[in-house]
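Below is a filled-in request sheet from our internal design queue. Each sheet records the structural input a requester submitted and the sequence that came back. We keep these sheets so that new team members can see what a complete request looks like end to end.

REQUESTER: design group, bay 2
PRIORITY: normal
MODE: inverse folding
CHAIN LENGTH: 83
BACKBONE (tokenized):
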């Protein structure tokens, strides 16, 4: 089979594959995938959720100022041509 049983419960079985990743099977022998699999592995402490990178406040402020300047430059010619 190539997979090592890590944990068995009444609802599912967790295996570790030869490539160090995890496989989860339901009690009925069906594979569990997607969000349900991630939730099970997180609850068992076998994987950790990736940290979400927050933009630095200074960089976000500079980008916002640059965007406002670009918008003002685009609006100015439109106002002149309307007169």
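RETURNED SEQUENCE:
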């Amino acid at each position: 089979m190539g997979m090592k049983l890590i944990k068995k419960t009444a609802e599912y079985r967790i295996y570790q594959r030869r490539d160090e990743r995890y496989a989860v099977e339901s009690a009925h022998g069906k594979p569990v995938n997607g969000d349900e699999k991630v939730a099970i592995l997180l609850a068992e402490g076998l994987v950790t959720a990736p940290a979400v990178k927050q933009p630095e406040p200074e960089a976000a402020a500079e980008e916002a100022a640059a965007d406002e300047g670009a918008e003002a430059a685009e609006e100015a010619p439109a106002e002149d041509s309307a007169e």
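SHEET NOTES:
- The first strand starts at residue 4 and ends at 8.
- DSSP finds two helices and four strands in the chain.
FILED BY: M.R.
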